[in-house]
Amino acid sequence: MRDLDAVRSEADAELREASTGEIRQETMIINMGPQHPSTHGVLRLLLELDGETVVSCEPIIGYLHTGIEKNTEYRTWVQGIAFVTRADYLAPFFNELGYCLGVERLLGIEAPQRAQILRVLFCELNRISSHLVWLATGGLELGAVSVMLYGFREREVILDIFEAATGLRMNHAYIRMGGVIMDLPEEGPAKIRHLLEQMPGRIDEFETLLDDNPIWRERNVGVGLLNAENALALGVTGPMLRAAGLPVDLRKDEPYCGYETYDFDVPVRTEGDAYARYRVRLEEMRESLKIVEQALERWERTPGPVMVEDPKVAWPAKLSVGPDGIGNDPEYLRHIMEESMESLIHHFKMVTQGVRVPAGEVYQAVESPRGELGFYIVSDGGYRPHRVKIRDPSFVNLQATPSMVEGGLVADAIAAIASIDPVMGGVDR
Amino acid sequence: MTPAEIADRVRARLPDLVVARGEVTAIVDRDELLDSLTWLRDHPALQLGFLSSLTATDGPGSDPRFWVVYELRSVALRHRLRVKVGLSDEDPHVASVTSLHPTADWYEREVFDFFGIGFEGHPDLKRILLPDDWEGFPLRKDEELGGVDTRFHGAFHPPVDTRTMA
């Protein structure tokens, strides 16, 4: 057995050697994601860390690539709606709207008034539900678990409306070229009114919980800074740009679906940090409620069809929401199967072959919850698109990550990415 | 500004113009791309300093085969202009615009990834959405839509739609 003193002196010598030796400084490479609870799906960040400080950051994307753009080239124009709606899966109505407005411009048609109102109504409800998911997941990432529960609870109320109207909670394929697939169901207005009564109080609750919450402020104020000049150079749009001081909103700048006739404000903050983005999004929910209220009121006093009359464009089938989602109306099925051969032929041709769209190209942008959602659509005059490019705001906004997190703490990177609100389905498409 | 007014201002510098469906498209030579985009950005009446989107289209058999498409937007003046550059099949490459518009970085990588179009002067041109070892450029028209073999439990399985029951 060795002498205790000898062990001690040996350890002392080792310690001396270690302390007089050269201090080594090296950075550490850390892979955050793609399976990480706070990367909003399958985002991977290659972080170079010096202690707790982020030296460099490279976002790596593509884990959710599903080839939506290629797929649309092999389907009819109408089938394309069912593909694009799945890109940014938290904002399905916006994908459908951008695509359909683009195709409508190629066709040279315009949806009837009542359909335009329904489009605005559903898009604004969707904006609220999307912002609620951002609040819920963003809160969870910063440790505010109750905000997660409240956020998803309110979103459920909106998804119930979607389900009643379209048969589905997500990926509705509700907005079609020439209008929308069906009118509001009987219980729709009551459900929306209930939401309009309930929601302002719930937003107040969020504000009470978070606005002056010391932890929330500590984690968000001054974090993920991005000024307006850099935001524009990086192509950043939406709440991120508005939180940096620019009132850029396509609903005001390039109005579509009659947005110029609705009364609403564009919330702007000047700080350009995560807290400003939080404030902008909460205010946007209030503005969206204002628009929903106006749209519902207009819907009630604007009778008429929700789809263009032209049988060469309009979807032939009459649909209804049944117990297992949306489907062909039984009455309509009886009509084409038992009564009218011509209707059956027409139905078959429209469903299998679809619409012929004149050759040309358009770029149609709509203001999605995350910013400019653009569709560059090229037709060669056939029954299928030649090219559909989705300019998804998440893809572009995510590019600003390095400039927002480099030089900051690794824990702040989580808050910064949460404040971008990227949806990987839209990023990777 | 209306599309016609934009076209009037641009015509002297970029004569190859198309005005359709309320949109102005300028077709430029690939050697003049950077100069044209700089001019459009700096012109006080145009201020097209925001690159909204950048993508490409493929039309095999037509001349030129590829079009690289730049969607420019003026945030202040609220108008748009599209710039297109035609590229031949043999030599599909064009100057990178990342020096003018940093946002073009990922767009150009995406176009490279899907169309195999090169961008000279890009800081780090590599695949972005597909795996690094992917072969081919899927958004080219001569690439068919179809699945790839997936590895599962050590064996390769064909794509779902081509599987047959044994």
How would you describe this structure to a colleague?
The complex is a heterodimer of chains A (429) and B (166). Helices cover 51% and strands 13% of the residues of chain A. Chain A is of the alpha+beta class. Chain A has three domains: 4-58, no CATH class; 59-313 and 355-428, Cytochrome-c3 Hydrogenase, chain B; 314-343, no CATH class. In chain A, helix 5 (113-141) packs antiparallel against helix 17 (410-420) and helix 13 (330-339) packs across helix 14. Chain A is elongated. Chain B has a single domain, classed as 2-Layer Sandwich (Beta Polymerase, domain 2), CATH 3.30.460.80. Chain B is built from three helices and nine strands. The chains are: A alpha+beta (429), B alpha/beta (166).
Q: Any descriptors?
A:
heterodimer; A: 429 residues; alpha+beta; Cytochrome-c3 Hydrogenase, chain B; 3 domains; 3-stranded antiparallel sheet; elongated; B: 166 residues; alpha/beta; Beta Polymerase, domain 2; 5-stranded mixed sheet; two-stranded parallel ribbon; 3 helices; 9 strands; 19% helix
Structural category of chain B is: alpha/beta
The percent range for helix content of chain B is: 10-25%
Biggest sheet architecture of chain B: 5 strands, mixed
What is the mean predicted local confidence, pLDDT of chain A? 89
Cross-sheet strand order for the largest sheet of chain A: 1-2-3
Largest sheet of chain A: 3 strands, antiparallel
Query: Which percent range describes the beta-strand content of chain A?
Result: 5-15%
Give the chain pair forming the largest contact, with residue counts. A-B, 39 and 34 residues
What's the pLDDT, averaged over the residues of chain B?
A: 88
Q: Which residues of chain B sit in consecutive blocks of at least 5 with pLDDT less than 50? A: none
Distance between the termini of chain A: 68 Å
What class do helices, strands and sheet pairing of chain A give?
alpha+beta
Number of DSSP-assigned strands of chain B: 9
Share of β-strand residues of chain B: 25-35%
Count of DSSP strands of chain A: 10
Number of helices, where a helix is a run of at least 4 consecutive DSSP H or I residues of chain A: 18
Q: Indicate the CATH class of the largest domain in chain A.
A: Mainly Alpha
Number of domains of chain A: 3
CA gyration radius of chain A, whole angstroms? 26 Å
